[in-house]
Every structure is written in C-alpha cells, then in structure tokens.
Amino acid sequence: MKNQKSTQLFKNAQKVIPGGVNSPVRAFKSVAADPIFIQKAKGPYLYDEDGNRYIDYCLSWGPMILGHANIFVLSGVEKAMSKGTSYGIPTVGETQLAEMIVSAFASIDEVRLVSSGTEAVMTAIRLARGATGRDKVIKFIGGYHGHVDHMLVSAGSGLMTLGSPSSPGVPADFAKHTLLAPYNNPEAVMELFKEYADQIAAVIVEPIAGNMGTVLPKPFFLNELRTLCNQHKSILIFDEV
Fold it and tell me: Under CATH, what is the fold of the domain 117-238?
C-alpha cells in the first residue's frame, strides 16, 4: 500500500502541531504506524492522500452514522450555513433538537448540548459534585471518559484503588478523588461504597465498554449500579456515544 504522501504530510504536521496530530488517538502509535491523511470521503469509504480507499468502521467516532457526504445531510448543512455559521446566542434550532432528543428517549427529561464528550463528562461530574456536596467519583478500569484531568487515571497495585495520574500534567491531588473498580464487578463497587460511602458523588460508566474492545455488561450489572447509587444517594452517569 502506498503511503509516501501521508508520511511526508505527517512530517510537515509535526513541525507546527505537537506530535503532528490534534488528538492522541490519531497518532497510530498503538498500531506502530504513521497516521494516514484523509483527502475525502463518500458513503462508507475514506480516501487518503495516496489514493488508498478504506471502509470506515469508525464513522468519525459516531456522527457519520448516515455515511460521509450524505446528500440529505449536505443539503441541510448548506441551508443552515446560508443563514450564517455561528451566532453565539440562542437559536430556535437548539430547542428543536433538544425536543427531538427528549421525545426519542423516555429516560431523558432535559438536554444540555455541548461540543465534545470531554465537555459532557466534565459538566456531568461537576453537576454530580455540586448536587451531592461530595468529591470522589468511581470509574472503571479500561473505561475512557475524555481528557478530563481526574478521569486520566490508572490502577495502582490493587484492583480497587485510589487513582494515580496516567498522564503528565495531571496533579496527584486531582487523581486521588477518582476511585477505580473492574468493569462488570458490582461487588468491587459495593466495597468502595462501604469504604467511602459519604464521599462518593458519582459512578461513571460506559454502559457498553467500547474503549477496551466492545465489552458488554453482564446481566443486571447496570441495574446493580443503579441500586447502589440510589442506596447511597450518588449520581449514576452513563457515558455513551
């Protein structure tokens, strides 16, 4: 497979962008390769600068569920952009979108629209801490919740442990408020509640753990989290894309 152009473009990018990419997940380090540079996309396919075609299973991490350059989506975007690209103040469209989301999901009463998953997690955790007056949050080992400082933690010597920073620049004082438990292990969560009962603001979980290989929850695992959070008056946060 040809990749000369992508290789050169990556070298050019490294001169002006830290690491040559604007998100660590694009660096291709986990597959020991240089990133490919995409030129265009159509339907289920991506085309790189070297002319290679790929089937896109990531779909820009979710939003391209209708495929790339979908004619109906492009028509809607063109119509909206003809009225201006950004206003910085409320629009009717925001309310209409929120109404559509609320009507589609019985569990959703209100919606706050944000620009990224990291921002959504940051807001949800801040709300949980504000509502409960507590600081600690339980997350699951292997789960990914964006690049919020207190979510960038890794396990220590035990399976259930206080978090330690997994990225330079994250103060240990932030990480100490994150508690870790194995995914699909409600007993571990129960033990954390026993030890830190009055300090846990929230439990955050990927209902289907996508970051570690699309791991399905065991039967009743999520129900047990719901029960534990109710018992201890903690907030249960589902981080799902």
Answer: Aspartate Aminotransferase; domain 2 (3.40.640)
* Every domain of the chain and the residues it spans: 1-85, 117-238
pTM: 0.84
DSSP state of 92: H
Q: Any idea which fold 1-85 has?
A: Aspartate Aminotransferase, domain 1 (3.90.1150)
Q: How far apart are CA 111 and CA 94, in angstroms?
A: 10
Q: Is the pLDDT of residue 20 over 90?
A: yes
pLDDT tens digit sequence for 49-73:
999 999 999 899 888 999 999 999 9
Altogether, the residues listed in the chain come to a count of 241
What one-letter code names the amino acid at 97?
L
Token pair of 116 as six digits: 């990224």
Q: Say if residues 204 and 235 touch (Cβ distance below 8 Å).
A: no
pLDDT (0 to 100) of residue 51: 96
Which of 187, 189, 174, 173 is CA-nearest to residue 139? 189
* Separation of alpha carbons 170 and 153, rounded Å: 9
pLDDT number for residue 147: 81
DSSP designation for 204:
E
Percent of the chain with pLDDT over 70: 94
Count of CA atoms in the C-beta half-sphere (13 A) of 68: 18
Give the CA-trace dihedral at 155, 158, 164, 167, to 10 degrees.
-30
